[in-house]
Amino acid sequence: MQYGVEMPDLESTSEDRLDAPQLIGARLGLAALRSVLEVHRAWLEKRPGGLQASLRGIALAEANLEKVNLERADLKSAIFIDARLSGANLSAANLQWADLGNATLLEADLSRADLTDAKMDFALLAAANLSEARLVRTSLLRANLREARLLEASMEQCNFKGAVLREASLHQTKAFDCNFADADLTGAKLYHAAFRHCKLRGISGAGSNWSTATLLSCEFQGADLASARFERADLRQTSFWCATLTGSSFERARMTGTDLERADLAGARFHDAVTLGANLCRANLRGAQGFTPSQLGQARTDRDTILPNGTHGPFMLGSGAHRPGRIEPG
Q: Mind listing the pLDDT tens digit for each residue in 21-31?
């Protein structure tokens, strides 16, 4: 990083400097930035005289960069705090160690961008495209990613605590050891996603779709997942302790060793699910559908389990308690 270095404006006029308070880091005037962008555009178009933009360590806090084209630019350690980047093209850009805290990136394109160690806390990323992006130790604390696209994104040790991901698309996303605690994933789509050792405690995920997802050793304690879909998902060793899963679907899910203790599963569907060793102690299964005596017999139940027919457990073969009873309204 070129901290403390000032880059002169090409036209050397004070009027052309960015109207933004400068932070620690190299400073760039408006005319110089325009020149960089023009030369970068020529490079993208393979015209003579073109050069790839390099804004390493440049401070552009509060800058108005809406719809700017910095595709494949080198933005390592650049400072975009409070910057306006709505509609910007940052696809395949190097944003390692960049600071985009509280930046506005509505509908911005960050597909294939490298966001390793980037800071994006409180950033506004609604409808942004982060498909195929690389996020390693990236911080998105309380960021707004409503309706964002993260298809096939790769995420490792990222912080999404308290982030908004309502209606976001995370198809085939891979996440390892990431923190989504208290995030809002209402209506999110996560078909064929692969989450391993991720923390999703207390998330709001009503109506979210995890069909065919792999969720191994993840934590959903206290999550609200009413009407969520886990059809054909692999949920081995994942914990839904005390989660709300009313009306959810686990049809054909692999639930070996899944912890559902104290979970509310009223009206949930379990047709053809593998429940060997699943923990249903103190769970509410009233009105749950699709259980066979074998399925329920292979899971763990206790006297505090409310079985599908409304009686208390533990489940006994031949009792008929696997058949769903009526769920009382309210």
A: 333 356 788 88
- Residues 322, 330: Cα–Cα separation, whole Å: 22
Task: Centre a 10 Å sphere on the Cβ of residue 48 and count the other Cβ atoms it contains.
Answer: 5
Amino acid at 51: L
- Contact yes or no for 144/164 (Cβ under 8 A): yes
Joined tokens for residue 108: 């911005």
Please calculate the CA angle 61-67-70 and round it to the nearest 5 degrees.
Answer: 75
Cα end-to-end distance, the chain, whole Å = 60
pTM value?
Answer: 0.89
> Of 12, 6, 1, 11, whose CA–CA distance to 27 is shortest?
6
- Find all residues with CB under 8 Å of 213, minimum gap 6, and list them: 190, 191, 192, 193, 194, 195, 230, 233, 234
State both tokens at 271. 């047709």
